[in-house]
Amino acid sequence: xxxxxxxxxxxxxxxxxxxxxxxxxxxxxxxxxxxxxxxxxxxxxxxxxxxxxxxxxxxxxxxxxxxxxxxxxxxxxxxxxxxxxxxxxxxxxxxxxxxxxxxxxxxxxxxxxxxxxxxxxxxxxxxxxxxxxxxxxxxxxxxxxxxxxxxxxxxxxxxxxxxxxxxxxxxxxxxxxxxxxxxxxxxxxxxxxxxxxxxxxxxxxxxxx
Amino acid sequence: xxxxxxxxxxxxxxxxxxxxxxxxxxxxxxxxxxxxxxxxxxxxxxxxxxxxxxxxxxxxxxxxxxxxxxxxxxxxxxxxxxxxxxxxxxxxxxxxxxxxxxxxxxxxxxxxxxxxxxxxxxxxxxxxxxxxxxxxxxxxxxxxxxxxxxxxxxxxxxxxxxxxxxxxxxxxxxxxxxxxxxxxxxxxxxxxxxxxxxxxxxxxxxxxxxxxxxxxxxxxxxxxxxxxxxxxxxxxxxxxxxxxxxxxxxxxxxxxxxxxxxxxxxxxxxxxxxxxxxxxxxxxxxxxxxxxxxxxxxxxxxxxxxxxxxxxxxxxxxxxxxxxxxxxxxxxxxxxxxxxxxxxxxxxxxxxxxxxxxxxxxxxxxxxxxxxxxxxxxxxxxxxxxxxxxxxxxxxxxxxxxxxxxxxxxxxxxxxxxxxxxx
Lengths: 209, 423
Description:
The structure holds 2 protein chains of 2 kinds. By secondary structure, chain A is an alpha/beta fold. Chain A has 6 helices and 10 strands. Chain A starts with a strand and ends with a strand. The model of chain A has no long low-confidence stretch (mean pLDDT 91).
């Protein structure tokens, strides 16, 4: 489903980061662990096609996304990858529902209101459908971000430190949600984190150093 | 959720910025619309009221004043001229002159000028009687349509005139005979709508000039004029001891002789001749500099509003960097982001134009009441000039695009990985 081959990347004026090859099958859950500065976020951005590797390739659902043009990779990402960032950001001028509808539309899918409300229902946040995202608590925002990453039924879900801003209770809740939803969609889940609380939940682990 | 709705919601999310931008834009566009309308209507009115008059003859003074007072009825006359001196131009058979319409000014009713003249004036302004009869005897008057509407006078009504052109109860000619309305003119849209027409004899008589013809009269002597003056009237130019204010002259043809006639009159007689077209151009060049200044101010306001649109888009994009990166992550192409920001600029400009158009037209309509009171010309805000207004819309939208250009480029060049890696 997702594999890398001799992946490396260098920021201008900085030493090259080399990543060990790995392969995740469909439906598997993986953890990428490492200290700050070990290149966790860089790896996630490479996997999502937001950065172009200096060398090597990322094969996602049979497509070498490192070879796609800028426009094509935007389109591919919108349709196949759900991404959750460490801090959730939304289009401020839109409601929760509109943010999710926009995600469908930008990825080129038909707008499906019932799917959006169903998803929010499952994440237990449907009562915030018409709220502005900045009116929500951090935990609620993270749940909406998860909903947004799932709204196009992605083949792979990438999560960048999804729990680091959350207390233990919310951490537990969000992780459980992520695993459960990924399982229901049979999507590959890859969580990048340095959060020790997750270490024991997911056994497939990639260590960066 | 199309890109247009999204850009509108983004604008609406900053209501104060939106308001400032719209107010500035609407002010600039509105001022330009107002000037366009005012200029067009003033030009139109003055040209229409030129009424094919080639030359105005009157007492010496300012030629512009003579034209304004005799043709447009918006200034005081330069004085009176004796008919004895004007006679050569009034007599039929002058080789160059087609018509010579005499005007005797001096009185008014409720601010409307009473003009002692000959029925030829109706032809000049393409006017005709809508109700009643033309004036025939002294103290019979025909009202312009605007006068009839404003005063409520009808054929058969009587009124006393007052001296001068301003409304003042102390100046009413109580001792003179009352005027009798015999007819009302059709509306023409020209200055004749605002005039009270009568014979020059009426004006002379009101002013106690009872020298030759009229019997001594008292206030009850009104009936005396109806039918009593059955004696055949002599032509106006035979009243050599009387005065008129001016003559409106139409030439048979325009040729070298008619071109030099005004100068001949000015140099060789006590009279003054003025060319309305020439005086009008002079007036426009005088008024034009004021209008140019106002137009420059309007353009400056538009430039400032472009700057304001630019600054608010630029600042809001700085704040929305993360949003833009997010949209890219969700599948939006760089083109789409450019389009989004361009659309925000266009939307601001388009709404500013719409409000500006409303402001300009409503402003003109409000101003027209004041202008009509002052000049007694009809003005309106509900006149639409498709050519210039569309040009203004085009220019306005262009301003929006230019203001949005740099911010849209900035949106396009947002590095999504770098932006999203920031915390």
